[in-house]
Amino acid sequence: MESKISKIGVFTSGGDAPGMNAALRAVVRTAIYYKKDIYGIMHGYEGMISGDIVKLGARSVGNIIQRGGTILKSARSKEFRTKEGREKAFINLQKNGIEALVAIGGDGTFTGLHKLQEEYGIPAVCIPGTIDNDIAGTDFTVGFDTATNTAVDAIDKIRDTAISHNRLFFIEVMGRNSGYIAINSGIAGGAVATIIPEESMTLDELFAKLEEGGKTNKKSSLVVVAEGSKLGGAIELAKKFSERSSYFDIKVTILGHLQRGGTPTYFDRVLASKMGVAAVEGLLKGEKRRDGGNSQ
Ligand code: F6P
Fold this sequence. Notes:
With about 300 residues, this protein is α/β, with parallel strands linked by helices. The chain has helices spanning about 20-35, 45-50, 85-95, 105-120, 145-165, 180-190, 205-215, 235-245, 265-285, and strands at about 5-10, 35-40, 55, 100-105, 125-130, 165-175, 195, 220-225, 250-255. It is built from nine helices and nine strands.
C-alpha cells in the first residue's frame, strides 16, 4: 500500500480492557505486513511525555491474543491534558521519527488524541477499547463483551447465595456514566430491576417493585445498579431500602475492577483484531473523518 508514513507509534491508554492486547497484536502485525516500522509507547500518554518508547517486532506481540490487561501498560495522564504536556509528547514522537499514531483506549484517549492531532496535525486513529461501551460510531467497544460476561458470571454466583439465604442483593457494576454493562448483565442475570444512568425508575417505583415481590412470597431478588446511577450507588440504595422495609435480608456486592481483567472472549478478540487491521490500513490510506480531520 502506497503511503508516505513509514513509522507508526501505538499505545494503550486509560482503563485497561480485555482485548487491548489482541488489538495491539493486530496493529503491530498489520504494520509489519505493510513494511512499516512500529513503536510501542509505554504507559499511554505518560510514556509519550517521558519518551518511554520501544521498537516492536512481530514476536513482541506473540502469545498475547488471549491475555487480559495490556503489555504496553496504561495510565490516565493529567500532564497530557495540558498544552505543555502535549508539546513534550510531540517532541518525543519527533525524536523517534514517529509520523502517525494508533491509540487503543476510551473517551479520554480519544479526546487526548484529537487534541494532539489538532495541534500538531499528526495522522492518528483511535481503536475504541473500554469496558464501558460509551464510544459513538461503534456498536461495541473492545472489552465490553468480556466485562459483561464477567458481570453475568458473578451475578449467577450471587444468585445462588440470594436464593439459599432468601436475600436481596444490590449488585453494582462498572460503566462510568454508561449503563450498557448494567442493562445487559441485568437482563442476562434475571435481575428484578436494573438501575442505569440513561433512564431509570424512581426510588418509589423501585421500592414498590421490591415490596410487591416480598408480598407475593418472592424470597430473593437481585437488583443491578450501574455505578453512574443517578438514584445512588448500590450501598446507598440498600441503605435507603432497609430504612423503609423489613422484607429482606439485604446485601451489597460491588463488582469493581474484576470486570476489567481476565481472558477476552472470542468476540472481543475478533473485534480487536479487525479494528487493529482497519486502524493501520485507515492510517496508510490517509482516511479522513467526514468533517475533514484524520480518521479517529
Ligand atoms: O472506563 C473504565 C472504567 O473501569 C469505568 O467503568 C470506571 O468508572 C473507571 O474506569 C474506573 O477507573 P480507575 O480504574 O481509574 O479507578
